[in-house]
Design goal:
CATH topology of the largest domain: Four Helix Bundle (Hemerythrin (Met), subunit A)
Distance between the termini: 23 Å
Structural class: alpha+beta
Order of helices and strands: HHHHHHEEHHHEEEEHHEH
Number of strands: 7
Largest sheet: 5 strands, mixed
CATH superfamily of the largest domain: dinb family like domain
Radius of gyration: 19 Å
Number of domains: 2
Length: 287
């Protein structure tokens, strides 16, 4: 996956590409239904503004060793994953209404703030911790999350106009890097899991990696082993192996493609106990 220096280019490139596309849309197109259920294209942009807006400040404070909460933003943890999703739905729509014609300028302003702050990040700063309401996160993690948000929601917006849209190829490294959070949010705890079951996604092509998802009673674990050596399995022995492209993996893990149809359509090959494959499919809730 991409190194730290490439992250700066990746986030800037994704932001400018999406800004450029949004400038071509008229009011009716901005009001069209996106791939996110219940959200218009404009709602998706408002979500990117709301979720991204506090991050540059969190990074800048983190570089100075300050882990204090973002001023004016609630630091109360969500009561549940489902409540968190509902809160996101409502707040995005409310912000879109509040910003009105200022939505796209505000999106561009947030993106320029990322440019400014990431220019301050040195080679030894990527592991520095920044504020998050659940637990501190590294600068690297904050950037990966923003890359994934931009890339995935870029697809959600393009879907409104092209049902065959694909994820931008240069966004795939960032999506794979950030997929751990999507994995942990996509599965709920289940006491019926009496032993952990390890699922390995073997990604082919330029973004080759082994990604392990372990389902246990307390939820899902995640391990990423970039560019495994040919012929060598990484980590603990998996119970099930899924083989696919990084494009398909990202679409599945971020909830835009169901795994069952992806297997049926030949986008994913599965080897291992069929009952465990079905258990993974049934357990996926999304986040």
């Amino acid at each position: 996956m991409n190194g730290d220096d490439a992250r700066r280019d990746e986030i800037a490139r994704a932001a400018r590409r999406l800004e450029g596309f949004l400038r071509t849309l008229g009011p009716e197109e901005m009001a069209g239904q996106s791939a996110c259920e219940g959200w218009t294209v404009a709602d998706v942009v408002a979500h990117l503004v709301e979720r991204g807006g506090p991050i540059p400040g969190q990074i800048e404070r983190g570089l100075a060793g300050d882990l204090s909460p973002t001023p004016g933003v609630s630091d109360a943890p969500p009561s549940s994953e489902d409540q968190f999703r509902l809160d996101l739905d409502h707040s995005a729509v409310a912000l879109r209404r509040e910003l009105g014609d200022g939505l796209l300028p505000e999106f561009a302003r947030v993106n320029r703030e990322f440019d400014r702050v990431l220019a301050l990040v040195g080679a030894d700063d990527w592991e520095k911790l920044c504020y998050h309401r659940l637990r501190p996160e590294t600068v690297r993690t904050k950037v990966d999350i923003r890359i994934a948000e931009l890339a995935m929601h870029e697809w959600d917006i393009h879907w409104a106009f092209d049902r065959d849209a694909a994820l931008a190829a240069d966004s795939l490294p960032g999506l794979v890097n950030a997929s751990g959070r999507a994995v942990r949010r996509a599965f709920r705890p289940d006491p019926a899991r009496t032993r952990p079951v390890r699922y390995r996604f073997q990604l082919d092509g330029p973004e080759a990696a082994d990604v392990d998802v372990a389902l246990a009673a307390d939820g899902a674990g995640f391990e990423l082993n970039p560019s495994p050596e040919p012929g060598r399995e990484s980590g603990a022995e998996p119970d099930v192996i899924f083989r696919c492209s990084a494009q398909t993996y990202a679409m599945v893990i971020f909830g835009r493609q169901k795994l069952g149809p992806a297997i049926d359509g030949g986008l994913v090959t599965a080897s291992g106990d069929a009952n465990l494959v079905n258990a993974f499919i049934d357990a996926y809730v999304g986040g």
